[in-house]
Fold:
Amino acid sequence: MKALSFALLLSGLAACAPLPHPAAAEAPALALHGTDGQVYDLESEAARAPATVLVFFDPNCPCMTAHEPRLKALYEELASRGVRWFMVDSEVGASLERDQAIAQERGYAFPILLDENGTLAKAMGAESATYSVVLDRAGHVQYAGGVDDDRSHLQGDATPYLHDALVDVLDGRTPRRTSGKALGCALKLW
Structure:
């Protein structure tokens, strides 16, 4: 049984292929419904915060599950500095009801936004789960790509792409890295 479980884990992680990330230069003018009952206008959200993070989400992706503790820890580390944080569900079949249950089950302190028709994912070049975008106060994309370079957090020496980009933006610097490979499962977009 252990061998079967390990084989399934490895086959799931193999599906976490790096994908390209041709992000738009800025956030599109979109209003998305969140699991907290609010409607979020991305331009307004970006203007209200020194940095806004969008993490594209697939609840069934092993890479998403592996990155989740790191994403939560990063949120907790930087929320006090005013960072706005959102998971984005752009997949076919996504619904607020499903996302509300997932957000509650997983204990997210931030909302999941429903991206009906995958409009935001397409605009941001998001093709995989864990693909993350950092927007500055003007709504310009400062970083687009993976959370780090470790698919399953089996190593302690992962290069923290998203963390570094966020800290750079918050400290008023140009990010040392503006992109990184996203290591999540392919999103099933509308």
